[in-house]
Amino acid sequence: MSAALTAVLIAVFLLEPIGSLQVSRWEEILQIGVFLVVAVVVSALSEGRHRAERSLQARTKQLEDANRELDAYSYSISHDLRRPLRAIDGYSSIVLADYGAQLAPDVQRYLNLVRGRVQYLGQLVDDLLAFSRLGRQALNTRSLSPSDVVMDALNELKPELDRRGVDVRLHELPACEADSSLLRQVYVNLLDNALKFTRERQGPVIEVGARETAIQTVHFVRDNGIGFDMAYAEQVFGVFQRLDVQETYEGTGVGLAIVRRIIDKHEGEIWAEAEPDRGATFYFTLTGKKS
Amino acid sequence: MVHQAIDILLIEDDPHDVELTLHAFQKQTIVLRVHVIKNGAEALEFFHGTGAYANRDPQLGPKLILLDLKVPMVDGLYVTRQIRASRTHRTTPVVVLSSSSDEPDLIKSYQLGINSYIVKPVDFEAFIDTAQMIVQYWLSLNRAPAA
Q: In this predicted model, which residue has the larger pLDDT, B52 or A23?
């Protein structure tokens, strides 16, 4: 565009008979000259911008390729790692079920340990894949009722909630903007966590609610479980960070890392308050400041 | 087996998956006639009625097709397309037994007309329960048109 303009201006300038130049027109010529310089600079800048755009496109394509590669990679991990795990668990299970009576108690115990560890590994593969997919998943937010999402998550955990006789207290939750399937994962993980750490409690209570502050809605999930020392309040959200080293509590330690990543994607915040033996509360916000 | 009646056609390449799946079906209360096909090319012969399966009477079944998406030679999704395009088995229920819950696979499978998509659990006892539910639902509760 600017190059075409420059060409037209040069043509007009050259077609003008040199002899007809008058001193009063020098001013005009000077203006045209300035205009030409500006046009050339704009043209050069525009060329630079095009080059930047091209390099940005190339970079985007590289990123897309890398993403596709990662997808293919996680696909093959989930297929190729889970397959042998299923076989190990399957054969161990058949030995225990069909030949268990002929096995010494120790052998049975070892085989059960093998099965336990293999199933843990299977869960770990699933959780890590879910975690890695999250990073690349687009956020699909809409206005929704978090109560519906919580009910959905509670339904998934219903068998254990019923079996353990957990007192679930669900308070009213105001409508919010969120990705419903991701928010569901947040609640499933937080509730699952609460379930796990109230296991030794007589009369376990899990409370789900929200409180409005001046600027935002703070959602929370509270339990009366074993809690933890606040010195570890940040650590609980890291991948593979488990506070119980003795593996008393099942789980891969990825659940809360998934929760944090989902909240980050929503540009919200998450934090925990707890005290050893006096329960834990996980708080989160979804959109930072309320509009 | 070519000219015998089949309840379930299992299309699966991994020998361990085949053995364990058959074991899970043996644990069921009813006796099931399961025929195993270990690669996509043989699956196509089956549905096209060519090669080893020439002149096979489609009335002999299967009543249910269990399909692994990752079978050698011909991709499982392609096999699904061929089943749905075939004259003889286009209405037979297809249940995908997958190793992963990969979203693109899930979407593509349903778009091609599968009836159900199940991720095989690592826990074998859970898999025996899954097999029982598959048999109860697809071979007993569900009604499908005759071939």
A: B52
Q: What is the pLDDT of residues A2-45, one digit of tens each?
A: 566 656 655 555 555 555 556 567 787 788 888 888 888 888 88
Q: How confident is the model at residue A120 (pLDDT cuts 50, 70, 90)?
A: confident
User: Which among A71, A82, A90 is the nearest to B99, CB-wise?
Assistant: A82
Half-sphere exposure of A36 (CA within 13 A, CB side): 13
Tell me the chain B residues in contact with residue A78 when contact means C-beta distances shorter than 8 Å: 99-102
- Beta-carbon contacts below 8 Å between A and B: 59
pLDDT at B124: 93
**What is the CATH topology of the domain spanning B6-137?**
Rossmann fold (3.40.50)
Quick check: B41 and B73 in contact, CB under 8 A? yes
Read off the DSSP letter of residue A139: P
A198: which 2 tokens?
């109230």
B11-25 average pLDDT score: 92
Amino acid at A25: R
What part of B 55-84 touches A (C-beta under 8 Å)?
A: 70
Q: How many CB atoms lie within 10 A of CB A79?
A: 17
Cβ A87 vs Cβ B17: under 8 Å: yes
Token pair for residue A2? 């600017």
Answer whether B25 touches A (CB < 8 Å).
no
Does this model's pTM top 0.80? My answer is no
How far A109 CA sits from the closest chain B CA (Å)?
17
Phi, psi for residue A167 in degrees, rounded to 5 = -85, 105
Give the model confidence (pLDDT) of A46-68 as tens digits.
Answer: 888 888 888 888 888 888 888 77
Give chain A positions within 8 Å (CB) of B100.
75, 78-79, 82, 129
Interface pTM, i.e. ipTM: 0.86
Give the residue extent of every domain in chain B: 6-137
Report the gap between the CA of B13 and the closest CA in chain A (Å).
Answer: 12
Contacts of B4 (CB under 8 A, 6+ apart): B33, B60
Q: What is the rounded distance in angstroms from the CA atom of residue A114 to the CA atom of residue A12? A: 88
